[in-house]
Amino acid sequence: MSTTLITGGLVVTAAEEMQADVLIDAGRVVAVVDRNAAVARSLTADRVLDASGLYVIPGGVDAHTHMDFPFGGTFSSDDFASGTRAAAWGGTTTIVDFAVQTKGHALREGLDTWHAKADGQACVDYAFHMILSDVNEGTLREMDALVEEGVTSFKMFMAYPGVFYSDDGQILRAMQRTAANGGLAMMHAENGIAIDVLVEQALAAGRTDPRHHGEVRKVLLEAEATHRAIQLARVAGSPLYVVHVSAQEAVAELATARGMDLPVFGETCPQYLYLSTDELAEPDFGGAKYVCSTPLRPAEHQAALWRALRTDDLQVVSTDHCPFCFTGQKDLGKGDFSKIPNGMPGVEHRMDLLHQAVVDGHITRRRWIDIACATPARMFGLYPKKGTLAPGADADVVLYDPHAEQTLSAQTHHMNVDYSAYEGRTLTGRVVTVLSRGETVIDRRTYTGRAGRGQYVPRGICQFLN
């Protein structure tokens, strides 16, 4: 593989910003050199990329995606080929997807199924979490073996009774296992038993529109489940990572736990930062596009989420990318909001939406890279191979134009879904060129990648626990 020199740009990592040149060899970063240093003038390479006027940033790490994911009698509309291509267009060079254990089957069987889905399909690198749908003595033993081979995080659901749901006893047992084997317990924190009662009551009263999805999945039932997950983790002595936090009250539970120095972490997603129940109320069933769980909340929750990202009570922004087409999938729930497949597209726009947050003054440039690249890599045992620009790191590099304007639209996005959750929204900032392990996959807004070049990446344990 030839050498590459990226020159003229502002290098931005979670730790620093500097006018520097980046030298790449054999798919790895070999040097990041201050442009004013004498040695910078002697750097040579087979290929030189001019990044003048651009940011040079690490490739994004999206630690929460669902490619080709079964839900509600259908599958998410992006597979590993289309989904990772869209990720690359948005400057994300690593995803961590969720392999699913089917009830009554082994973890290994589910993991093998997801390897088969991704193998030969992914454009960028990928890793796996494991969804536990059936906690029993056999699957508990399997968790140890999965940690050894680089699947080091295990997701459970307090929601979706009869599908993915685990009761408190099962959750406690699994958390005891992660406490012993170094794994990280991940939690979808909503009180699914109570929510099902409210769903039944809403439908019986004729409240069938998409907006009622958000109304029955109440803020207090997210907060209650978050509190309960934290206490179960304390009893087990396990670290805990709460996914897709959407509500101010749930953030408060995490902040209290972190104030006690507990190993409790949380992520939110762009949809909770930018969208609200206003979208769920779109007429003519349009709100179905925005049905996801946890649900969109009233706009007043957004300030608490932004604040938590600044104060580190939330550490990561992932997408929970789980797209379903409006026609043929979301419309399965016409007349019954509970049958709308839960999930939204987002993998292509996370880096841009978070850069807009820099422009708007919500976060700093370095915090942008922290919550989108470095911390997800550390959280899930990928750092410093991923998430930074430093000697030895994979050469996952994005040249980013902070001044370019773009308008998001289903007409121009690359995700395999027939609508955009951000249709017509104008953003400042855009990906120009993307390198994955030194290989150009987006070249000045032209896709040059290919399905199958992405590699599976085994992960270490959470690096915030060392």
Can you summarize this structure?
By secondary structure, the protein is of the alpha/beta class. The protein has helices at 80-89, 107-118, 137-148, 168-181, 192-204, 211-216, 219-236, 248-259, 270-274, 277-280, 302-311, 350-359, 365-379; strands spanning 4-7, 10-12, 17-25, 28-34, 47-50, 55-58, 60-65, 70-71, 74-75, 92-100, 125-131, 153-157, 184-188, 240-242, 264-268, 316-317, 397-407, 426-436, 439-442. The protein contains 13 helices and 19 strands.
Topology (elements, then pairings):
Blueprint: E1 4-7, E2 10-12, E3 17-25, E4 28-34, E5 47-50, E6 55-58, E7 60-65, E8 70-71, E9 74-75, H1 80-89, E10 92-100, H2 107-118, E11 125-131, H3 137-148, E12 153-157, H4 168-181, E13 184-188, H5 192-204, H6 211-216, H7 219-236, E14 240-242, H8 248-259, E15 264-268, H9 270-274, H10 277-280, H11 302-311, E16 316-317, H12 350-359, H13 365-379, E17 397-407, E18 426-436, E19 439-442
Parallel strand pairs: 1-5, 2-6, 7-10, 10-11, 11-12, 12-13, 13-14, 14-15, 15-16
Antiparallel strand pairs: 1-3, 2-3, 3-4, 6-17, 8-9, 17-18, 18-19
